[in-house]
Automatic annotation (TrEMBL):
Record's keyword annotation contains Transmembrane helix: no
Pfam families from the UniProt entry: PGM_PMM_I (PF02878), PGM_PMM_II (PF02879), PGM_PMM_III (PF02880), PGM_PMM_IV (PF00408)
Domain Alpha-D-phosphohexomutase C-terminal: 377-450
Protein name, as recorded: Phosphomannomutase/phosphoglucomutase
Biological process annotations from GO: carbohydrate metabolic process
CDD domains xref list: PMM_PGM
Domain Alpha-D-phosphohexomutase alpha/beta/alpha: 8-135, 158-257, 267-372
Needed co-factor(s): Mg(2+)
Similarity annotation: Belongs to the phosphohexose mutase family.
Keywords annotated in UniProt: Isomerase, Magnesium, Metal-binding, Phosphoprotein
Gene3D superfamilies the record matches: Alpha-D-Glucose-1,6-Bisphosphate, subunit A, domain 3, Alpha-D-phosphohexomutase, C-terminal domain
Native species: Streptomyces boluensis
GO molecular function: intramolecular phosphotransferase activity; metal ion binding
Amino acid sequence: MAVADLSQIVKAYDIRGVVPDQWDESLAELFGAAFAQVTDADAIVVGHDMRPSSPGLSRAFGRGAAALGVAVTEIGLCSTDQLYYASGALNLPGAMFTASHNPAQYNGIKMCRAGAAPVGQDTGLGEIRQLVEQWAESGAPAPAATAGETTRRDTLSDYAEHLRGLVDLTGIRPLKVVVDAGNGMGGHTVPTVFEGLPLELVPMYFELDGTFPNHEANPLDPANIVDLQKRVRAEGADLGLAFDGDADRCFVVDERGEGVSPSAITALVAARELARNGGKGTVIHNLITSWSVPEVVKEHGGDPVRTRVGHSFIKEEMAKTGAIFGGEHSAHYYFRDFWNADTGMLAALHVLAALGGQDGPLSALVAEYDRYAGSGEINSTVGDQAGRAAAVKAAYAGRDGLALDELDGLTVAAEDWWFNLRASNTEPLLRLNVEARDADTMGRVRDEVLAIVRG
């Protein structure tokens, strides 16, 4: 395994690549040994999704750690947030084998320290990569005198009980909910989490199938929620929920089959979490969530804190500020009471509790939290990211009444609109998000910026 190949699979926050072309079980074994060494662990917990390559890769990772004397707890099939639960509840470093919504030939590893603390490029992943590169060339490290014991443990029911204990679902009215699991891990977790709740569950694509025969398990792509939207309308359901492949993200559809903005869900959950905490607390939001998020947080007594995009920045800021909740435009939702980790399932339970606690439809409930016209994320393929971004900055830098900042890409804000332009870390793309007080203004600003970006 050449160093150049490894550079292709070790990303900013995780490991991800094509199996077996870019990595395989022999390399997974080295990653297991390196993870054990960098975390200085006596014991770790390992889980995996439904991809065909996941069981073998996760077992190999466990072998690598066990060879160095580390005890390994295998929790088997699980969602990513179920692995975070195990890491938090057992207070062990953890590794989750998944490539989330990537196509079937991909796989990856999301790693965390004890208590679900993230492992990223600057918090251990860089060191792990260096060790694996070294061992790939010179051979695996010498085994310990005694190998660590490997045991199996089922955490699904404990995970479900923990989540239900964080949301008051007593007394909610019966609801009909369509859930599209996309043949991913939601098909494994939803039945247990929803058990005993007054819900009529209409399951879609609950069969675990890592080849994704029905659609890509990425609900942020509108093409992948078309089936769910149709089914919600056909069933006369109260709402629909769509999970991604490893079921850590959840996207919500209202009773009309219309998608609910993740910013509106962030605002709704923030209001509920603030109420749970006596109307006090810090709420983290990234810089491309809607204006409505900090507004709602302030209206409910909380302190909004704006961060860069990305789970490592959110989790870092949550730990620093003691925040009770954090949300992103990408439908990742983070909870202090879930070790600052992200769990779309807990956000879904909040939506069910909010909807079931009153008589109106979901569309009316979320209207309070969805106040502005947004473009959604628009990607443009460009040859010169820096040059195009500089051209946009130059076009707006001299104008009166505008505020510019570069916390993450370029954000330009006026009294009645704002936009953010960010470069992708992995592709030759510029990502544009625009929001305004009305649709006409949003369209005008969007088109003006895109004309510069696309030359």
